[in-house]
Every structure is written in C-alpha cells, then in structure tokens.
C-alpha cells in the first residue's frame, strides 16, 4: 500500500492533467467517464500513518508522501459502474440527479462531433465529482485502495502489494459505500491469495492471564467487518467466536476512549457490536454462576460433606474457607465491605480482554482439599470438573459464534440479545445440570446433534442449578 497512484498501471497523462488541473489515472484507456475524486484525510490519521511507517534506527525506507487532500481523476467505463455498483447505477442513470444529466449532455455533444467516447480526450469526457473522507476507515492513502476497487470492478487485478487486513477492511468499507461488494467478494474468494492472520494473545505482567492486545483486537475486528460486508460466512463464524472468547477493551466498564478509534470496525454495524458483547456477558455469567452456586451451597444450612452418617459441619466450613481463599487468590472473587469507598464499582474490570478459556482452566485447577484423610470427595474439585468440561464443550459449539446468513435473514430468531429483551417479565429460564446431561458423552464432541440448542439454552439462562438430582 506504499505504492503511489502515479506509479501504478494506468499512468497519469501530463497533458490531460494540465488541462483539467488534476492527474488522470486510466483504469481503462478507452473509458467514457472521468470520476473526479477528492480524498480528505484528517490530521490524526496522517499522524498515526506516519508513526506506523517511521523507519527504525539504521533502516533505509522510502516513506510514502501522505497529504491531507488529494484530488485525482479516474477514467472508467460507465457501463461497468452501472452494472456492478447500485450506487453508481442510481447516480449516473437517474436524470433527476445532476450527474446523470451532465453525462447525457456530454455524450450527446461528443456524438454530434462524431467522436467516440473511448477515443475522446479526458477533458471532453463527462465528469462526475465525488468526495471521500477517512471517517469510516481511518486510513491514509485511500486513493490507492479506491483505484484498486475500480480495477476489480473492471476485471483487473489490484496493484497494491502486499495485501494486509487493514487494506482489506478499507477496501470492504469502500465497496459497501459504493454498493459494489459482490465483485469484491468474488475477487476475494477466487483471485486473492492471502492468508488471514491468526489472533494472538499475550501474557500481561499483572495477573498472568492471556489477554488480547489492542493491535490484535483491531485486526480481529477488521476480520469481522470484512467477513460481514463481503459475505464470507466461514470467516465470520470464526472471527465472531474469537471476539466473544477473547473480549474487547471497548466492552470494559472503565472504557478509555483513547483506547479505541472511530473506525468502522471499532463499532461493528448492523447490531453486531451489541450482540457480540451480550454473548460474551452471557458466557461469563454462566461461568461465574458455578462458583456462586457452590458458595451459596457451602454457606447454607444444608450439609455438603459427603461422609454419610459421619458428615461434619467443620468439613463444610473448611471447604468454604479454602474455596474463598482459592478464588480470591486467582482474582476470580472480590471481597468488598459495606463502606462506600470499598464499593464493587471501584473494582477494576480485569476480565474485559481475558481469554474465557483461561478462566475455565484456572477454575479447573481448584485443588481437592480434605480436612483429614477420612473426608474424600467433600470439596469443590470433584463437583465442578464435570461442569467445566461441559461448559467448555458448549463453548466450542457453533451457537457461540454468529452465523452471518441467519443474522441477515432472520435476526430476531438468531439474536440472543433480542430474545432477552423480548420477554423481560416472563418466568426466569433455569438451566439444570442433570445427571443425564452430565453423563452424555455425545455433547462433548463438536458438531454433535442438538449441541447448539443445548449451548444456547445454557448461556442464555437466567438461573443455573449445578447440582444434579439424586
């Protein structure tokens, strides 16, 4: 993306540039229309782009020249734009628009002069003005990506090399803006040789739990946006599940606006942002309900010790203390007294970008405590391991990810958030971890029959009973 427009296929004509006042790029040499496009780039975007391309000490790199305002003309085929872009089809065909009237008049003038549009000088061709800013893409050098979009519409390969996820996201945004995503999707699926990057997490120094970095999250969000706009269901399914599992700094209760930008991928369109945040909240609530359930059990009057006639209240007290100590030491339980300064609202939201699989793994490390050698299987470990195995299996079903086909066709049925908002006054949905569910090995395998239905009922429940019936 560091190749200037003038250096790419379709060089600008000096004579035409002098007459029109801006450079002309020949997408097709015999085009019958000039798109006069002005690209505006904000100071913040330019500053970020220059910082990203700044060479390291001792590195010799020719930095691209980035300008806040670039004006270029693109020679294109009118028929191609009308065929592949509903935006241009409406703008350039409907004579209620001034652009369509000017095109009609210019082509009629050339016809009276006996000049074929494909052989005419650029200054004599119909001209359509377009203004493009960087609000949605936060990308500098959009003129090169816009040229690539026009090349794709005209059946040519884009000139930009190498392709990056940021480039694909900007290209998808532009194709959506001009309503021509179908040709770009076809090019992506059949012509592009690009391996989408894997999502990486890192170990922060504070709690040792894997967390997604800002750069990794931005790339992940770009993958979701590209998959949605270009209609690539498999990519959409994978990327949305990853965002639910890894989380987002944008979903933190203590969001710092400087942590996120204003690009389109930081606020996913068509209800995706709220839906994915809600799904992560549902999964976290489900996992947290396990420790809540057993804390309530061990603080109740019901005896939890499993030693039959010799069951002991001291064993329950011991197990409760060890349980609280373990959860608190791992940062999974926070103790706050009744004073205003110790309000739970003051606790740092440390799990907004922590891998959910890591939380489950930590909970499964709960030791098998015994008050003495006679009290076996009285503690938390033997009771929660089957539960977390089940939750982990349900987390790997397709229900957690967002199916773009269902989301486009029947959003009300596929949305967890819509279902939660539709009937807030109904009886709470209770999920019961029965012995039949606990021992059903079929639900441990990805793609098992009815697993998606079980997963949705698990994660969208209002209450959970994690003690199988006797």
Strands, helices and their partners?
Layout: H1 14-20, E1 23-26, E2 33-40, H2 43-52, E3 69-76, H3 78-84, H4 86-93, H5 98-112, E4 127-132, H6 142-153, H7 165-177, H8 181-190, E5 201-202, E6 211-212, H9 214-229, H10 233-246, H11 272-299, H12 313-329, H13 356-363, H14 381-395, H15 404-409, H16 411-414, H17 416-422, E7 430-432, H18 435-439, H19 451-459, E8 463-465
Parallel strand pairs: 1-3, 2-4, 7-8
Antiparallel strand pairs: 2-3, 5-6
Helix pairs in contact: 3-4, 6-7, 7-9, 9-10, 10-11, 11-14
Low-confidence stretches: none
Shape descriptor reads elongated
Largest beta-sheet details: 4 strands, mixed
For the largest sheet, list the strands in their spatial order: 1-3-2-4
Q: Give the end-to-end Cα distance, rounded to a whole number of Å.
A: 65 Å
**H and E string:** HEEHEHHHEHHHEEHHHHHHHHHEHHE
**How many DSSP helices?**
19
Helix content: 40-55%
Number of domains: 2
- Give the rounded overall mean pLDDT: 86
Radius of gyration: 29 Å
- Total beta strand runs: 8
Please identify the structural class as seen in this structure.
alpha/beta
Proportion of strand residues: 5-15%
């Amino acid at each position: 993306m560091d190749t200037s427009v003038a250096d790419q296929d379709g060089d600008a004509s000096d004579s035409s540039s002098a007459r029109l006042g801006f450079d002309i790029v020949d997408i097709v040499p015999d085009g019958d229309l000039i798109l006069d496009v002005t690209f505006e780039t904000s100071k913040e975007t330019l500053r970020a782009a220059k910082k990203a391309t700044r060479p390291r000490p001792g590195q010799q790199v020719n930095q691209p020249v980035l300008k806040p305002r670039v004006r270029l003309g693109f020679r294109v085929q009118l028929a191609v734009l009308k065929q592949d872009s509903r935006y241009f089809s409406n703008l350039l065909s409907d004579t209620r628009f001034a652009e369509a009237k000017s095109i009609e008049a210019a082509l009629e003038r050339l016809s009276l002069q006996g000049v074929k549009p494909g052989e005419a000088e650029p200054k004599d061709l119909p001209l359509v003005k377009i203004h493009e800013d960087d609000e949605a893409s936060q990308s500098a050098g959009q003129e090169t990506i816009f040229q690539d979009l026009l090349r794709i519409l005209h059946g040519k390969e884009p000139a930009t090399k190498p392709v990056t996820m940021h480039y694909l996201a900007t290209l998808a945004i532009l194709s959506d803006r001009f309503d021509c995503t179908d040709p770009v999707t076809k090019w992506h699926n059949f012509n592009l040789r690009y391996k989408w990057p894997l999502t990486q997490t890192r170990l922060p120094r504070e709690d040792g739990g894997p967390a997604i970095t800002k750069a990794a999250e931005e790339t992940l969000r770009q993958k979701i946006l590209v998959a949605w706009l270009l209609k690539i269901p498999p990519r959409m399914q994978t990327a949305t599940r990853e965002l639910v599992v890894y989380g987002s700094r944008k979903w933190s209760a203590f969001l710092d606006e400087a942590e996120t930008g204003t690009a389109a991928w930081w606020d996913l369109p068509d209800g995706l942002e709220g839906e994915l945040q809600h799904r992560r909240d549902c999964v976290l609530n489900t996992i947290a309900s396990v420790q809540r359930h057993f804390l309530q059990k061990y603080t109740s009057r019901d005896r939890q010790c499993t030693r039959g006639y010799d069951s002991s209240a001291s064993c329950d007290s011991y197990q409760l203390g060890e349980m609280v100590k373990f959860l608190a030491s791992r940062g999974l339980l926070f103790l706050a007294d009744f004073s205003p300064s110790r309000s739970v609202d003051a606790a740092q939201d440390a799990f907004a970008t922590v891998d959910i699989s890591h939380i489950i793994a930590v909970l499964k490390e709960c030791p098998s405590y015994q008050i003495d050698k006679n009290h076996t299987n009285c503690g938390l470990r033997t009771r929660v391991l089957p539960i977390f195995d089940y939750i982990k299996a349900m987390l790997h079903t397709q229900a957690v990810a967002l199916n773009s086909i269902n989301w486009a066709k029947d959003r009300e049925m596929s949305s967890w958030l819509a279902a939660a908002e539709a009937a807030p006054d109904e009886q709470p949905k209770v999920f019961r971890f029965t012995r039949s569910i606990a021992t059903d090995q079929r639900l441990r395998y990805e793609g098992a029959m009815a697993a998606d239905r079980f997963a949705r009922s698990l994660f969208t429940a209002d209450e959970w009973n994690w003690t199988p019936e006797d």
